[in-house]
Design a protein that fits this description.
The structure is a homodimer of 203-residue chains. The first copy, chain A, has 203 residues and is mainly alpha-helical. Helix content of chain A is 77%, strand content 0%. Chain A has eleven helices and no strands. The first copy, chain A, is globular. The first copy, chain A, binds a DNA duplex (30 and 30 nucleotides) through helix 1 and helix 3. Chains A, B: One of its GO terms (molecular function) is DNA binding. Chains A, B: This is AcrR family transcriptional regulator. Chains A, B: It comes from Dyadobacter jejuensis.
Chain lengths: 203, 203
DNA sequence: TAACTGTTTGACATTTTTGTCGAACACAAA
DNA sequence: TTTGTGTTCGACAAAAATGTCAAACAGTTA
């Protein structure tokens, strides 16, 4: 068969695997389900990607090398920290909306296999969070522009961005949101966060 | 053997199972590991609790009927909403510190089996979040005491409390925290949140 | 001590999931 | 049509995890 079609099948499998892995986690994912989702036989999975682990590894690398990153580029150091935090939140929310199930998956991977996921992640986003966020926040606190412990501020920034995705299932159930209604809420959240950041840490 | 000892073994197993389930999730948990952690044979698990599912179910019910709830009591409606939010955050942080691994586990359960976990949870904490938080926040926004969409405000409250626990592994890795240093940060977070709540949503 | 009860253990069975292999297949080029 | 290459499929093997059972065991009571 043509090389083209082969690549297509591979891509098809990777897409299907991505969905299933993100939904169920590595342990919960079943090769059979991935096969069904791709519309191919389970044996073909082994033909293209030797084993579950190799498939997983490929999926992860593919995911991070795609445009699917939470933040594609970080501001240079000249940009004031408060603006940088805003941009981070904006990029994050926009990206996460395209893959709402990824965040919880990622937290689990950090729990189960921190080294692997950290390596894959840092390979594509080689940003030192400490230098890039903590240090500048410290400085802003010293100057009296922000108030509070720098780590706590940064963690709060992460919290308000990520949690609505990681906690999606729980919040929907608790507040009786439909899938569509909750997606709407997520879409509106960027604006909420930006306005929230105006006052949240102001000294 | 005495009934006393039997109960002790059961309790021992439940404690061990709790640890393993919270760390690994239902899918990731292995009966062998639970047996090892309890210091008993794997077959004895089946003697006490027929199956993995039954054991899990018992663990969950036990956990929620214990004092291990995130918020043991909610304020009556007379208490002003802002103060209620503060109390919620305080209780939550204190409780979560005793079981830091539970939160991520719970989010996963909500993902995998929302009905089961919601039922168990609501059986012990029969609080309607909408009535208890959303409606009063709406009112406060109308009165001009708070600003922003009520749902977004409530989700933000949840975020700043829960995320530091659910995202523990990720944050530790990202910011190069040691286990002890991160526990310290968590202990200091209650105070941070309380001061943060003073300004975050003020109109 | 003998009979009884609840507990533990090891050997085995079952189920679930993953992995392998060779035959069949489709299609293109010789 | 034959040969070759890459792909698919079904049957089967292996591994991993859960579940069952009867025999041994440890105490308690008659």
């Amino acid at each position: 068969m043509l090389d083209q079609e082969s690549t297509d099948t591979e891509a098809l499998i990777i897409e299907a695997a991505k969905k299933v892995f993100f939904r169920k986690g590595y342990d919960g994912a079943r090769l059979q389900e991935i096969a069904d989702e791709s519309g191919i036989g389970r044996t073909a999975l082994h033909y293209y990607f030797r084993s579950k682990e190799k498939l997983f590894s490929t999926v992860m690398k593919d995911f991070f090398s795609e445009t699917e990153r939470r933040v594609t580029q970080f501001d240079p150091c000249e940009v004031p920290i408060v603006e940088r935090m805003r941009n981070f939140a904006s990029s994050y929310m926009k990206s996460a909306l395209r893959n709402p199930e990824f965040d919880l998956f990622m937290l689990n991977e950090f729990n189960n296999n921190p080294d692997f996921i950290a390596e894959v992640l840092l390979k594509t986003i080689p940003v030192n969070m400490h230098e890039h966020f903590i240090v500048p926040i410290e400085e802003a606190v010293r100057k009296g522009e922000l108030k509070g412990d720098p780590h706590q501020i940064f963690i709060t920034l992460l919290s308000v961005c990520m949690f609505p995705f990681t906690g999606m299932a729980m919040i929907k159930k608790m507040l009786k949101f439909s899938d569509e209604a909750y997606m709407d809420l997520l879409r509106q959240r960027e604006a909420f966060i930006l306005s929230f950041l105006e006052t949240a840490f102001k000294a």
